Amino acid sequence: MRSPRPLPSVLAGLALLVCLPVSLPSEAASHPATSAVPEAERPFGADCRVRQAGSNVVAYCHNPYPEADRVALHIECRRWWDIDTDTARVAAGPAMTVRLAGRCWKEVGSAWVSHER
């Protein structure tokens, strides 16, 4: 009776497979949208509309991007004795609209919205 010959070739093939280097996909390669683009180049920033009616100011900020934007409304009053207003920062998440409001006692000099990552 003859012994089967394929056994040595099968063992040699398995030994080659075990010795070959294995490259697994890295974590960065599996999430190209967040790691391939530097933070400074990723689209960011809510679109804000600032409306003034008399001494009241209202800002609506809509964030169309996947990263949250922390927005704050700043109001500079025209009169020197009138207190300027800075609202607390509010997180505008992805696809979210936030409302910011403030006022002066008399006339509003200027109003703007600041953004923070």
Fold and architecture overview:
- The protein is of the alpha+beta class and 117 residues long.
- It is 19% helix and 39% strand.
- The chain is built from three helices and seven strands; from the N terminus they run αααβββββββ.
- It has helices at residues 6-19, 27-30, 32-35; strands spanning 47-53, 56-63, 69-77, 85-86, 90-92, 96-103, 108-116.
- Strands 3, 4, 5 and 7 form a four-stranded antiparallel sheet that branches.
- Strand 3 and strand 4 form a beta hairpin.
- The radius of gyration is 30 Å and the shape is rod-shaped.
- The mean pLDDT is 81.
Short synopsis of the structure:
By secondary structure, the chain is an alpha+beta fold. The protein is built from 3 helices and 7 strands; from the N terminus they run αααβββββββ.
Roughly what percent helix? 10-25%
Strand tally is 7
Shape category: rod-shaped
Q: Which strand-content bin applies to the residues?
A: 35-45%
